[in-house]
C-alpha cells in the first residue's frame, strides 16, 4: 500500500471519530402546574379542580361544597392504599398535602374525611338491614369505590391524576403515577414572569380578536420557553383564581364586616391588571320603564325630526288645520315603515325624542295665550321654532314614551323603597290569604270531627238502648 493511501485512510478515520454521536431525545412528559402553589399534576382536569380550592382562606373554617367534597374523595381514592399502611404519626404529612389540594387545613380535611366515613358506614348498615332502599346519599357511590367492595378493583390510572411527588432521593418510581419531580420554585418564577409580561402587554392582548391571540401566546411562550397553549391555560387559571379570591374576599367582608387578609402572592399584581375591568360601571343616566302620560290639550306629534304642540283654546288655527307634508320618495324607510334619519342628521333615540317632546309641551304650557307652538329638531339636536315657510307635520295620537331620569342616589333609593313596599304589601296579602285558607281548613276538620263524635255517640246510645 502506498504512503498516500495510508494518509487518506488515517484522515478518513479521524473524520469518522470527529462526527458527533446522535443523542436520544428525552421523553416528553405532560405536567400541569398549579399557578398558585406550583404543585404538578399529570392531568389538566385534576389541576383545574385543585386550583379552585388552592387558596387557604384567612378565617378558620371553609365551606365544604359538593365540588370540594368530591375532590377530597378523589384524593383519598388515589392514595387510600398508601394511607392505610401509614402509622398514625406519619399521617400528619398526608393530611397536610391533602388539605393543600382541597384548599383547607390538614385538620379540616381529616375531620371531613372522618365525617364522610361515618356517614358511609351508617348508610351501608341501613341498606344491609333493609331499613333504606336505593341510594339516598349522593356521595355513597364515590365512597363505596374507596371503602366498599369496589375498592379492590381500583383502576391504576386514578393515581396519575394526583400531584407528582418525588422520593426522598429525587428519583421517580414506576407504577406510582408520578411523572416529574415537583419544582415549585421554578414554576412560581415562570408564573411571576408571565404576570409581569401580561401587565405590560394586557392592553395589546385585550384589543386582539380570539383568532389572533394564538400568535400572541406563542410569542410569550418563546420568552418563557414553554408551548403557547400551556401559557394560555396557565393565564386562564390565574384569572379564574383571581376571580374566586376576590369573590371570597367580598363574601368574608360582608359576613364579618372587615376586609380579610389575602394570602395569595399574585393577588396585588392581578388586581392591577384586572381590577378596574371587573368593577361594575355605574350608569350616569337611568332609563325608567314608566310611560309618559298624555297631556290634556297638548297631543304630541310623531314626526321623525319635528315635534308639535297644539295651540290652546281661543287661537286662530287648530292643529288639524295644518296640512301634512308629502312624503319624500328618496328618503329610505325601515322595515317597520318609519322613516330613517338623513345622512347629515344625527340619530336620536326614542328616549331623547320623548324628552324633547316633553320640553316642547312645557313651552306651550308656559305661554297659554300664544299661537300654536311648533318646533323642529335642528341638525345638532336642538329644538328650533318652525317658521311659516317650513312644511308642517301631521299630528298623531299620543304615544307612550320613555322618561329619561337622572340616576341620582335619592331617586334610586326612592325606587328601591317603592319596590320594597310593593313587594311587602304583596307578601302580606299572600300571607293573610294563606292564613285565612288554613283557618278555613281547620274549621272544616273541626266540623268533621264533631260530626264523627256525634255519630259515635248515636251508635253507642243505640247499643245501650236498642
Automatic annotation (TrEMBL):
Entry coiled-coil feature ranges: 428-463
Comp. bias regions, Low complexity: 331-344
Record key words, sorted: Coiled coil
GO BP field: regulation of transcription by RNA polymerase II
Keyword Thylakoid: no
GO cellular component, one term: transcription regulator complex
Regions of compositional bias (Acidic residues) in chain numbering: 7-27
A Pfam family hit: MADF_DNA_bdg
Domain MADF: start-end pairs: 210-271
Keyword Coiled coil: yes
Top-level division of the source organism's lineage: Eukaryota
Region (Disordered): 1-32, 308-344
The protein's name: MADF domain-containing protein
Organism annotation: Amphibalanus amphitrite
Lineage: Eukaryota, Metazoa, Ecdysozoa, Arthropoda, Crustacea
Amino acid at each position: 500500500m502506498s504512503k498516500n493511501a495510508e494518509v487518506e485512510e488515517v484522515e478518513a478515520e479521524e473524520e469518522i471519530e470527529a462526527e458527533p454521536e446522535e443523542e436520544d431525545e428525552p421523553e416528553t412528559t405532560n405536567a400541569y402546574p398549579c399557578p398558585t402553589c406550583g404543585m404538578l399534576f399529570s392531568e389538566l382536569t385534576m389541576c383545574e379542580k385543585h386550583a379552585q380550592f388552592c387558596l387557604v382562606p384567612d378565617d378558620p373554617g371553609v365551606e365544604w361544597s359538593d365540588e370540594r367534597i368530591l375532590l377530597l374523595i378523589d384524593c383519598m381514592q388515589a392514595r387510600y392504599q398508601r394511607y392505610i399502611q401509614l402509622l398514625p404519626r406519619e399521617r400528619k404529612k398526608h393530611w397536610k398535602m391533602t388539605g393543600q389540594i382541597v384548599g383547607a387545613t390538614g385538620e379540616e380535611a381529616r375531620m371531613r374525611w372522618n365525617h364522610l366515613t361515618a356517614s358511609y358506614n351508617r348508610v351501608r348498615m341501613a341498606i344491609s338491614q333493609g331499613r333504606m332502599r336505593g341510594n339516598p346519599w349522593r356521595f355513597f357511590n364515590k365512597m363505596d369505590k374507596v371503602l366498599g367492595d369496589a375498592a379492590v378493583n381500583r383502576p391504576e390510572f386514578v393515581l396519575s391524576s394526583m400531584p407528582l411527588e418525588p422520593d426522598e432521593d429525587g428519583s421517580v418510581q414506576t407504577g406510582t403515577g408520578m411523572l416529574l419531580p415537583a419544582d415549585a420554585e421554578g414554576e412560581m418564577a415562570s408564573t411571576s414572569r408571565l404576570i409581569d409580561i401580561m401587565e405590560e402587554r394586557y392592553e395589546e392582548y385585550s384589543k386582539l380578536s380570539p383568532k389572533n391571540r394564538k400568535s400572541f401566546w406563542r410569542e410569550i411562550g418563546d420568552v418563557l420557553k414553554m408551548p403557547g397553549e400551556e401559557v394560555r391555560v396557565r393565564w386562564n387559571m390565574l384569572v379564574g383564581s383571581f376571580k374566586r379570591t376576590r369573590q371570597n374576599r367580598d363574601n368574608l367582608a360582608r359576613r364579618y364586616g372587615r376586609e380579610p387578609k389575602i394570602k395569595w402572592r399574585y393577588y396585588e399584581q392581578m388586581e392591577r391588571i384586572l381590577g378596574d375591568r371587573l368593577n361594575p360601571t355605574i350608569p350616569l343616566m337611568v332609563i325608567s320603564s314608566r310611560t309618559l302620560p298624555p297631556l290634556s290639550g297638548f297631543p304630541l306629534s310623531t314626526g321623525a325630526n319635528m315635534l308639535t304642540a297644539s295651540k290652546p283654546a281661543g287661537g286662530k288655527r287648530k292643529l288639524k288645520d295644518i296640512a301634512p307634508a308629502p312624503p319624500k320618495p328618496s328618503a329610505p324607510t325601515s322595515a317597520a315603515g318609519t322613516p330613517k334619519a338623513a345622512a347629515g342628521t344625527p340619530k336620536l333615540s326614542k328616549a331623547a325624542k320623548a324628552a324633547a317632546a316633553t320640553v316642547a309641551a312645557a313651552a306651550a304650557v308656559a305661554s297659554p295665550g300664544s299661537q300654536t307652538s311648533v318646533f323642529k329638531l335642528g341638525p345638532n339636536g336642538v329644538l328650533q321654532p318652525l317658521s311659516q315657510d317650513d312644511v308642517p307635520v301631521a299630528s298623531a295620537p299620543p304615544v307612550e314614551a320613555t322618561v329619561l331620569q337622572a340616576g341620582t342616589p335619592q331617586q334610586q333609593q326612592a325606587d328601591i323603597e317603592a319596590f320594597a313596599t310593593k313587594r311587602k304589601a304583596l307578601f302580606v296579602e299572600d300571607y293573610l290569604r294563606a292564613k285565612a285558607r288554613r283557618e278555613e281548613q281547620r274549621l272544616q276538620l273541626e266540623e268533621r270531627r264533631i260530626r264523627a263524635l256525634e255519630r259515635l255517640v248515636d251508635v253507642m246510645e243505640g247499643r245501650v238502648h236498642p
